[in-house]
Structures
1.
Amino acid sequence: MGEVYLAQDMILGRQVSLKLLPAHFTADAERLRRFEQEARAASALNHPNILTIYEIGHADSVRYIATEFIDGLTLRELIASKPMKKDEALDVAVQVAGALAAAHAKGIVHRDIKPENIMISRGGHLAQKENFVKVLDFGIAKLTEADVLETDMPTRPLVSTSDGITMGTAPYMSPEQTQGLKVDARTDVWSLGVVLYEMVTGRAPFEGPTRSHLIVSILEKEPPPLRARAEEVPEALEWIVSKALRKNREERYQTARELLSDLKDLKQRLDFKAQVERSRPSDSIREEISRSAEQRALDVHAPAAPLKLNQRSLLLAASALITVTAIVLGLRYFGRRLFANKSAAPFSKFKVTRLTTSGKAASAVISPDGKYVVHVMGNAGQQSLWLRHIATGSDKEIVPANGSGISSLSFSPDGNHIYFIREESGEVVVSEAPVLGGSRKILVRDIDTAVTFSPDGKRFAFVRGDPPRSEASLIVANADGTS
């Protein structure tokens, strides 16, 4: 939509993307007012996976939007030639779902999720397994919505095309969008389900030679099963996509956060499975170990000769001792080689990277997936909590400055929340704060240690001391702080 330029912010000395809005989109004053209202709301979103809007304005009657510049490729460019690997598609979907969850929490619906509006920055390449996703055009979709939904949408094409060509963004529209009904967060869930299906299979779930055929397909037909179009698709992934693409939105994921939870759970299971597979010895090595074990068993159960303490016996005993010692040392050496994680770099070659340069950071903790770090930032006696994306160095404040004494940071097992203790009004409390943004809440009062979660994330343990009696108690509570 419109022309896009790479520009230089002369005041702050940074590169920005400058998008010029076409005049026919901005001629309607009421429509422009609604767009500017939504764009301002979108500019307040503070999430690592959402493109930052710096400014909206006009110059010489030309309306423009200035956003951060992303050096990368759109998802459309990445999947144009072939589908993505399953783990890569999941990684992208997790980050997009996280962006949508943050936006929906602020009451903002994107309405136009599609591969063209998802970018992978060059700071995170697919080959490096460090995709860093940015979702574009929050707020801008509202401007085009009038053209798509508020006119003669059931009969007029979205764009001028010839038969046999998929039109505009219609393949990503939810059933309620195609009917001109009011949309909500579940529309974005549908669109992300379509994108995920296309990332895995290389094809859209709903197709048609004309716009009319496509709309009928979206409204009435079920898409081909994911595993019918792609190999080695986990059953859980097919179930997730199927639920996202329920035609009745009451049967869909009701929030992007629900979808995000299932995607992250599946990704963690697949990552663990892949790690186990990498650590297994090859078939040839396992066969060699088996043959060696069988031979040793035969040697052990061979009939014993009468014991005679002569020179020959002593030589044989010495030889046997040497042989057994060699076997033990060999098994010890090769066992370590076989079962060591081959993907782990030797300790002598580890790399240290400086994450912050302010000199004011402290008490850092790494997220379970290793991609984020939360740390305390001190300034003029006030402390706040900040989230940093390691691959790109982008920062986001998750707990504003309010007093000091923040310590004992820990992530929830799913990586969605950060927990910390702080002294407030003479009492030490443990608080929970959403990593994606939101208000913190106090869970437990009178606590003396960091919380430690159970593997399923449903409970955590902590220590509460009783100094007058010189005693301490180990207490287990539910994840919401209740007993």
2.
Amino acid sequence: MEAIATLFIHLPSSTKLNMFSLSDMPSVSTMLSAYASLAASTMLIRSMANEFIPHQLQDYIFSGLRYLFSPRLSQLTLIFEEFSGITRNQVYEAAELYLSTKITPSIERLKVCKAPREKNLTITIEKGEEVVDAFEGVELKWKFVCSDNERTGSTERYFELRFNKKYREKVLDFYLPFVLSKSKALKEGKKVVKLHTLGFFYDDMGGGGGGGVWGSINLDHPATFNTLAMDPELKKALIDDLDRFVKRRDFYKKVGKAWKRGYLLYGPPGTGKSSLIAAMANYLNFDIYDLELSQLRHDSELRRLLVATANRSILVIEDIDCSVQLRDRQLEVGCDVSSEQLTLSGILNFIDGLWSSCGDERIIVFTTNHKDRLDPALLRPGRMDMHIHMSYCTPKGFKLLASNYHGIHDHPLHGEIEELIEKTEVTPAELAEELMKSDQADTAMAGVINFLKRKKMENDMVKDEQGKEADCRDQKRQKIGKGDGRNRNERTRRSTRLRRNRWR
């Protein structure tokens, strides 16, 4: 530096002035002229390129130039959208639950909710907020993003995950499976059984119901197997069957069957079919999907609803015999079946077709008051594996009701009540209603006896009326039969006379 400074000092003064002379710089007019020429050349080249070079090749060239001149980024971003096709993205759900445990004081905005049936507050991050996580020395940054889709008019939600590119394999192979397993444990630890149904577009937390077309509320049904007034042997057989089902994941895979089970509950109204479904859900901790077939127009909607249900769930179709008019499969063959129609074949494929294998550990329950009205194709094994008859109340069932409602296991009136129950068709719901009419056990039991006596008289009167109607029908058939016989004899005699006259 000193040498350069010395050389500069010893230069002649004229030389120093010439080095920084303004006369050597181009004039403003020259610069404007050069810029105009360059702009004209650029426009000419651009027009020629648009004229002679295909747009696909232009895009390829420009993308290559952008890649060459863009700065090299060391960060990789993964996107987890809320929905993957027509189903909910499991990674999105896992991230939403997992990140709720990673909230730090640095986060400025949180979403806090509490539904009427929820016990605790639910805290999640608000859109635009960022959560920093660490895994085996790797820093990972999560961000929750919401954007409005102008084309569909809906809101798209997704998570962004940013980290250094060199940890790509570790994140994909170890971190994300860790998030999935952690969220599964959290979900099982605080899971509340939910009832999903069509037509609800907001769930208890004010969200979209968690299933697209399904909406949900918490199921607070108190029914358990201990409180059900059903045959003890049948109850034990059902519990054993459920326990066997949930433990046989590997077995179903080995034999090549979808991991699902079908139950048909049939019997008169008021015998506890709906309560049994709630007891099954509480016992297994499975969600319930209540499917109303009358709200569906064609078979494709069944498939869309099926793939939107979660694993470890019970799909219920109540009153299958009268919920919708289904075309018989034999009538469908050889005729034009409209796509805007729900068919029996669609129901059968829904139960055990290819689409039924889209999920694991699922239970399908049909209920009906009239089993004899169902198409035999619905009842075969593989569709409805276990048929459960919910009959009228039995003496053992009444003892359980008396124990549940009044805490009594033996009472002087038990013998008379049991005799009346054996002779009377009465549902558990009717007896439960009588037991609720008084807080005093003696008064309630006496009321049950009076009710059973009235019920028996009503049943006897109905049977007498039915017997009289049957006798009238039989008499009419006999009269019609005699009339037909007399008419046949008269026609025979007339025909004989005609033949005789013809040959005379």
3.
Amino acid sequence: MTATTQGAQRQRRLLRPTTKVLPEDARAHNRSMVLQQLFHSGPCSRADLARTTGLTRVTVSDLVSSLMTEGLVTELGLRAEGKVGKPGTLVGLRTDAF
């Protein structure tokens, strides 16, 4: 291999995008998905958010908790539907925060 060929290969490797996803990037993406879902669908329960975003309930609960701490999301009370089991607590965006 010539020096020119080796240099070109090295440059291509350096220009390739990395495929590593850092935890903080994943958290920011998941947070964005939760906020977008609340924006588009309105208030919903954590379980609904988990179903629609594909995230786990634990992840959604952690994200909602941090969004509440930041004042972006608030709990709106229990769902008024007559389903079996414990009614879900609705969460929604705080319109005054945006």
4.
Amino acid sequence: MGFFEIAYCALGITAAFVFFLFFREGYLLGKDIKLLYKEGGIANGKNWHN
């Protein structure tokens, strides 16, 4: 295998790993925001702090 094949392979693995991390963090963040919406009563039209 040449250098470029190894480099492209490593780049692909890194990109997939970074994408997975971003996707997972975004998913968890979305769940947290939904939870905040429920507990904050924003869906009921109340104030953010109440």
